[in-house]
Amino acid sequence: MSLELKIKGNWNELKGKLKEKYADLTDDDLMYAEGQEDQLLGKLQQKTGAAKEELSKFLFGKEEE
């Protein structure tokens, strides 16, 4: 399953998890536009200081394929 489908299908749940773990994230940080998954992960990396692999594992239970 692609990253786009994973995000699109579970976005509200994923936003809640991110806000819980990274309290300094704002709604603007978590704006998701279809087809913009890499930009979203980049923004999350900048804001949290977490690696892309760490974020993927946190969100999806495994590293991005």
From TrEMBL:
Record-linked InterPro entries: CsbD (IPR008462), UPF0337_stress_rsp (IPR050423), YjbJ_sf (IPR036629)
Domain CsbD-like span(s) in chain numbering: 6-56
Family that this chain belongs to: Belongs to the UPF0337 (CsbD) family.
Name of protein: CsbD-like domain-containing protein
Organism (species): Mongoliitalea lutea
